[in-house]
Write a structure and sequence with these properties.
The chain has 153 residues and is of the alpha+beta class. The protein contains five helices and five strands; from the N terminus they run αββαααβββα. Helices cover 34% and strands 25% of the residues.
Length: 153
């Protein structure tokens, strides 16, 4: 099921925003089924996002048969408050990648939480950069520890 412009408040403008943002975005129902997914979300899993619709999020993103232990969506549905988490997702081919998730409640006219919307960012580059900094700091520390002469400021 591809989102239609009329299903968005504001119509086509909101649909264009949803489809073209480079952050993965999903709408998930209380039974943890994916109801909407944008192009970026599909790209994470190297598939057409329409193929994600109707699937359970924990099966799709984490290859799990049950909801994830620290799932931000579970917290959002229980508390009605936004939540975020860092985790690792698994593609169908078994490859893994780190993800930063932010989940937000979606409320009906009476204020009841009916779904949650989540945004997802692949943080692989960030993790590689952090690891490079750690290695560089360790190398520098080892160099200073082996230095024959003192280092003064």
């Amino acid at each position: 099921m591809k989102p239609r412009a009329e299903s968005f408040p504001g119509g086509a403008n909101y649909l264009a925003l949803f489809e073209n943002i480079e952050t993965g975005v999903t709408l998930i129902s209380p039974d943890f089924r994916i109801r909407m997914a944008n192009l970026a979300q599909g790209a994470f899993f190297r598939t057409d996002p329409r193929k994600l619709i109707g699937r359970l999020c924990h099966e799709t993103f984490k290859d799990r048969s049950r909801t994830c232990p620290r799932c931000p969506g579970v917290k959002v549905m229980a508390t009605g408050q936004p939540c975020e988490a860092f985790t690792e997702w698994i593609r169908g081919d078994g490859s893994r990648f780190p993800v930063h998730i932010k989940a937000f409640p979606v409320r009906d006219a009476s204020g009841t939480v009916t779904h949650y919307m989540s945004t997802h960012r692949d943080i692989s580059e960030r993790r590689r950069a952090e690891e490079a900094v750690r290695r560089s700091e360790a190398d520098l520390r080892a160099l200073v520890d082996r230095a024959v002469f003192g280092i003064y400021r």
